[in-house]
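Task: fold both queries, return tokens.
Query 1:
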Amino acid sequence: MSSLPLGPSAPKLNVSVLNGIIRDDGTPFTSYPTSSNISAVLSSQGFPTAAILNSTAFPIPANCNTTLSIFNLTSRVATDAMFRCLGQSTAYTAAKNGIFEKVYAYEFDRAYQIAEWSPNPPACEAPVTPSHPFGDPNESFYKCHAGELYAVFGTAVRQGRPPRDQDDVPFEQYIVDTWSAFARTGNPVPEKAFLDARGFTNTSRFVEAAGPWEEVGKNERPVRILDVKSRSEGWREMEQCEVLGQGLGYYDTAS
């Protein structure tokens, strides 16, 4: 982390920051359990077992497959503890203390796992169905670490990954244009005139449907959820982050 001082005297850097994760970022970093002893599994993976089990924030998902239920739990804990909570606290604290020009937060809810790395298979892959031979991205599956890379770099087809449905290519175009806009202007929302001049109608459609993307600190819905139906929401898993000792104020030593 930066050693910059917090509070009113903190320097303001003339750069904007785009900060976020993918919904199940921690899934690849938790092992599929071989035991049905929840306490033992949590402890073996280094999680704060007592805090988790003594709270109601992390209920065990109902499933007749006990080990799968525990994996669902550890995936959620790993995502919160390793990615979401600290990322949200970073964005919140940076915005509160005016460290950067602007701070934007996002979370991917759509994923296409890279072929070179798909841990705990097939957890991170969209389920194959008769109507979706390459996987149905609208079915339930884990949106894992690295699952946003094809979209961010626009390389799914070029790297031999076929579109799974009619939304994969337009969504990828939208994300490429979003990241390009941020690199170009410091704002992740592409300018309408820029899109119109180039005939980028898919991105225009996504941008219009998603509505305004406000910087962190400007409203109560600071997180842009990136999906086929992108939208803005509040901070996610706030209760869970508090249980893990990583709430929004984790980095804010000024409070």
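Query 1 returned. Query 2:
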Amino acid sequence: MVMQTAEDRQVESYPAAFLGGWYAFAHDEELKPGGVMGFEIDGEELVAFRSAKNPGEVGVLDRHCPHLGADLAGGKVHGDCLECPFHKWQFGTDGQVTSIPYTKSALRPGLKARRWFATNFHGVYCVYIDGDKARRGEPPPYELRRFPGIDAGNMVFRGRRDAGLVRLHIAELAENSADVAHFKYLHGHMTVPFTTVRVPGITIDHEVLWFRDPEQSQFAGFRDTAMLRLFGRTLEFTTATAEVRFFGPGSVMQFGFTVPDLGELVLFQTHTPTVPGDPMMHRVRFRWFADKKVPRAIVSYVVGSWMSQLSADIGIWAKKKYRDKPMLMPEENQLLEMRRWYRQFYAPAQ
């Protein structure tokens, strides 16, 4: 008889452990032109390589060569192709074999490695992995939405941060956005940026609205209008609105904030299950940009405050279970609406 741990029972309380979506596997600084790296997500052993000839192109393939199983992560990039370290077969970013040095036979179309769809999302390399294993490797049902200000060159890179491994189920990120009541109790105090230290006498009022994206069915988010109180006195001039969007099930998130008279700030937050056999352990990473006019001190304050508030949720997520039929109050109807939207990310068999 195999004894279940508390962690096992926690995983089983959710409709599915892994949800299909775009998952980050590297940042731009880690996969340089001509670079190769191996990684694993939800039992899939993959290899990523970046073209040396066209640095904007990245390929993600099954990690082991379809010829005789060599580990392609030990290969080298030649131009646009990844070369196997064993027999020197070369593969394009689409998985097609482009060269076999010792054969005179024609390279038939069936000679290829399974290709996975990948993208460079503002310096974060992401791969699409479907929740339905039978569909893996097929074209994704949606693309990540790029931020116009970054592509236009109006916004500049201002930083990145690795929060390490965090225990959570990916669904909790969306659940959290529609759980309006918890904002008062977990996020109602001002903290020192990047810490959990509370600032005495300053509290935060939140007005939160969860919404579906009208243009893309796989996207949703919430808008938080916040205002500070100093020893109970309302400071209306501190009113600010932030908008958070979920691209898919929460594997990629976007936090947007407008600084009056100065410009915009955007932070991307990614969650990737990186511990084999444990779908609840996610590597959480951040990357942010801001308009050139926004002072670095303000950028650091906004980003640091977001991360400080997030730490309160992390402590809850690590031990909570999913309630399929939650005991809700009438004021919590947003949570039910969010769950109806979220069902699309569970594989059909589940």
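Both queries returned. Flag for query 2: The mean pLDDT is 93.
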